[in-house]
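I'd like us to work through together how a protein chain folds, taking it slowly. To get us started, please write out a protein record for me. Go ahead whenever you are ready, and we will take it from there:
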Amino acid sequence: MTDNDQAKVEDRPVNPPEAPKQDTIKTNDQFCSIVHTTFFSPTQCDAVIEACEKELWITGEVDGGGVNKKLRDVKQQGLMMNDKGWPHTRILELVQQANEAKYKFKLSGFMNYDAPMIMEYNAPSGHYDWHVDLGKNVPNRKLSFTIQLSNPEDYEGGDLEFVGTEVKTEAFRERGTCIIFPSFLPHRITPVTKGTRNAIVGWIHGPTFV
């Protein structure tokens, strides 16, 4: 092969491999979410919702990008805490147990600047499109959690889904269920088409992934 022939070979475009078909995606067992059913009782779910103040609801923003209702349409306010630290202390205990059992991440705990929030997704457009919970303003999020507050029959749509990970739709919708997953796992909330979905959403921080 001459130098000229070699140059022609090197200049030849390389065909990229075909993208995998959707039905070839398999569950990622290493980072599959942990589901704790009936973590909150119905009475506790009611107490959290009733503690919300109408004047405190704000429109949820996208990390570093302000309000973008095409990507995210939700109202939110900070999760209240009683004089004994509930429910924050109980949530932290459960997440630490899940981390020890599955992930083994180095965790620090909650951060005041990124405290847990109560989310309210309302029909017909409440949703949060595909995203990860890590971002330039929150690089230290390690584990995320969602606690279902609403009765599943009170709304339609509004399902939590993950990319490449098994979704246990019925379990995820059960009232009082806590779902724990790594903050780098892509996920979304599908549009709520009827009613209202309330949930607690929060993040446990730690040293930045390296």
In short: The chain has one domain: 29-54+73-205. The radius of gyration is 21 Å. Residues 88-103 form the longest helix (16 residues).
